[in-house]
Amino acid sequence: MWEQEKVHKQEFDRLINKYRVRPTALLPFWSVAGFVLGAGTALLGEKAAMACTVAVESVIVQHYNDQLCKLMNDPNFSDKALLETIRRFRDEEQEHHDTGLEQGAEQTPFYRALTDVIKCGCRTAIKIAEMV
Predict the structure, then answer these.
(1) Is 128 in contact with 61 (CB distance < 8 Å)?
(2) What DSSP string runs through 63-126?
(3) Per UniProt, what is one GO molecular function of this protein (predicted)?
(4) pLDDT value at residue 24
(5) Is residue 122 domain-resident?
(6) Could you read off the pLDDT of 20-67 as tens digits, one per residue?
(7) pLDDT at 16
(8) Model confidence over 64-111: pLDDT tens digits?
(9) What is the dihedral of CA 90, 87, 11, 26, to 10 degrees?
(10) What pTM was computed for the model?
(11) How many domains does the chain have?
(12) Is residue 111 part of a domain?
């Protein structure tokens, strides 16, 4: 998973430059928040870390699907390579989600509450990042 995430980051850094897109000003904050979330759930145990992965990836997969729909419905958009990149990354994130489930994420105490809180935080972060 980690190797794929590094590839995703490198590719999105390249695309930011290619399309001259300004990344969110909150990127440093999101990096720290992501580390704290990952480390915090890891301290609760391997299954809690997997529950975190499941929660985050479920939101990311939906975000990728939303982005794909927007781009495919834009009559002025024609970059098929970008669509394929987003699809591939979405599919890889879905694999990460599924791996988390296979590794026992749902056996985490208070699984539903933990993942609901994490999902809410991720959705909120995406909405804020779209504005800032």
Answers:
(1) no
(2) HHHHHHHHHHT-TT---HHHHHHHHHHHHHHHHHHHHHHHTTGGGSTTHHHHHHHHHHHHHHHH
(3) metal ion binding
(4) 87
(5) yes
(6) 998 888 989 999 999 999 999 999 999 999 999 999 999 999 999 999
(7) 93
(8) 999 999 999 999 999 999 999 999 999 999 999 999 999 999 999 999
(9) -50
(10) 0.92
(11) 1
(12) yes
How far is the CA of 36 from the CAs of 64, 72, 87, 124, 131, in angstroms?
Answer: 23, 35, 28, 16, 23
Reading the block at residue 82, the tokens are 């970008």
Output the six-digit token pair for 121. 């935080």
Q: Is 88 within a domain?
A: yes
Residue type, 51: A
Instruction: Report DSSP letters for 22-81, one per residue.
Output: PPPTTHHHHHHHHHHHHHHHHHT-HHHHHHHHHHHHHHHHHHHHHHHHHHHT-TT---HH
Single-letter amino acid, residue 53: T
What tokens were used for 3? 């190797």
